[in-house]
Amino acid sequence: MSTSETDEFEVMACPCGAGLVMKYVTTYENAWSGADTTYGISCHKCSKEWSAGRGHLTHLEDDRANTSLFRTLMDAEDAITKFMEPEIDAYFANPKFRDMAKVQREMMRLSLSPRDIRNFRIGRAQGKRYSELCRPFKNRSWLTSLASGVGKAEELSALCDAREAAIAAYETHNVRKIHFPADRR
Question: Does residue 179 contact residue 56 with C-beta atoms inside 8 Å?
Fold first, then answer.
């Protein structure tokens, strides 16, 4: 059985000034455990509007909107991949790419894949398709050339435009944060 001790420290006043942001440090009385640090807001109003984390307060509504924008971006990227899946898989199934290393190098050349051959091989061993192992939307011109060959260029263009709009919305959205003063503890 382990025992612990929690110390509380005032970090700063909450945004409305009616309460405090607190830092809680829990230490355990054994040699192998470190300390756990958590934060909280004592003000009822601010605790519903803000979240206290390591080093800052985050406005909850802004954070939820940011998460929604990110999900929209991921959905746009998934739509592109799903739409072009047969063409992507056919491209990389070409006999000129006789082994996994050649396929992965081609994906790297096209800027579609991370540079990690290990994860690529694990994915292939798990039965993942080529379209699941690359990020085809990273190279719009290559993707457009594939789409043009099968009469899908117009639909692909609309999907790519939707992705670019989602990127712009996500990148321009600001999440309000209030940084804690320098911690001296």
Answer: yes
